[in-house]
Design goal:
CATH architecture of the largest domain: 4-Layer Sandwich
Strand content: 15-25%
CATH topology of the largest domain: Anthranilate synthase
Largest sheet: 10 strands, antiparallel
CATH class of the largest domain: Alpha Beta
Shape: globular
Number of helices: 8
Length: 348
């Protein structure tokens, strides 16, 4: 059963040009990673936002982005918009978010009350280096040579419900001059059927078989077992910091804090290793080593991003914006005396 049905969809299309269509499945024998592998290809740009650990209300859903209608990229002052691998917009701009707003502003999205979670949209990253476009901060030249911003505009997404052991496949094709409401609905149904076939009916998925044969399930389990690496020394890691330079930076950071120039400063090192391990295997190792409510794997065209976090920076629900960092916070006290104690605890 597809929701909404075609009649209801056509009725809603009078006011909206992006309407999610979905179908629900029971998946008590699947996991987000197995579904990701079945839906993916070796060069397919996709993402996995996975919740592994935490209360069900916090870690209820995992999201798999499958088809990207468009991709936004911003690099060294050039904003580009790709559609099906072809660049349709490319211009110089010092206002990347304004350019992004022009693209997203074209969508009139229907909010289905039955879908009280993320249903697709712009997914990716806004790099720290973007700060130079919003504030007068001079940054050193980056040696990574990657875009400062990449966002997938995803039109097909798989939602894994950890509480109910169900999956929704959601497709939302934009209605425009070339694709009318009826055609948009039919295309959405075909996208759902295509994924249904890959996930539930295709037992000859080569990509899934490759991954399933990597780990010796009868061997000792370690955080590196999924990658086939037996010892951390095999990675031959190198840092972009010499040890004495890093320690000196720590002392300077302490002084900046004491002087009141900053209240928080993060000193990061970039560790590099040349290896032939598959990026998704490294993600699998991370989910063993550091399971969390907020894990992510992005397969971009030329590189991958893998990460894990115990908390969100910002959460938006409807018209409400919530931020609740774990570090540097305490609950409110029930009395002035307790408030003072908690304040002193934070200061020390």
């Amino acid at each position: 059963m597809y929701y909404p049905d075609k009649k209801e969809y056509l009725y809603k299309s009078a006011n909206y040009n992006l309407i999610p269509v979905y179908k629900k499945y029971i998946v008590d024998t699947e996991t987000p990673t197995t579904i990701f592998l079945k839906a993916s290809g070796p060069d397919k740009e996709m993402f996995l936002l996975e919740s592994i650990e935490g209360a069900k209300r916090l870690s209820r859903y995992s999201f798999i982005g499958v088809n990207n209608e468009k991709t936004v990229r911003y690099k060294t002052g050039v904003f580009s918009l790709e559609e099906n691998g072809k660049i349709i917009i490319k211009n110089k701009s010092e206002h990347p978010l304004l350019e992004l707003e022009k693209v997203i502003g074209q969508y009139r999205i229907y909010k289905d009350p039955e879908l009280n979670h993320f249903t697709g949209g712009a997914v990716g990253y806004l790099g720290y280096d973007l700060v130079k476009y919003f504030d007068s901060i001079v940054l050193p030249e980056s040696s990574l040579d990657i875009p400062e911003m990449i966002l997938f505009l995803t039109d097909t997404i798989i939602v894994f419900d950890h509480l109910l052991n169900t999956v929704k496949i959601i497709a939302a094709v934009k209605i425009n001059e070339d694709i009318g409401p009826e055609k948009a609905y039919d295309i959405s149904i075909e996208k759902i059927k295509d994924l249904e076939e890959k996930i539930f009916n295709n037992n000859d998925n080569k990509e899934n078989k490759i991954y399933s044969n990597i780990t010796n399930v009868n061997g000792p389990l370690s955080s590196l077992s999924a990658t086939g690496i037996n010892n951390i020394k095999e990675l031959n890691l190198s840092s972009n910091f010499e040890k004495d330079v890093f320690l000196d930076s720590v002392e300077r950071a302490k002084k900046y804090i004491i002087d009141g120039d900053v209240f928080q400063l993060v000193l990061s090192q970039r560790f590099e290793s040349l290896n032939q391990k598959r990026p998704f295997d490294i993600y699998r190792a991370l989910r063993i080593l550091n399971p969390s409510p907020y894990m992510y794997y992005f397969n971009f065209r030329d590189f991958q991003i893998i990460g894990s976090s115990p908390e969100p920076l910002i959460k938006i629900t409807g018209r409400k914006i919530l931020t609740c960092p774990i570090a540097g916070t305490r609950r409110r006290g029930v009395s002035q005396r307790e408030e003072k104690r908690l304040v002193n605890d934070l200061l020390n």
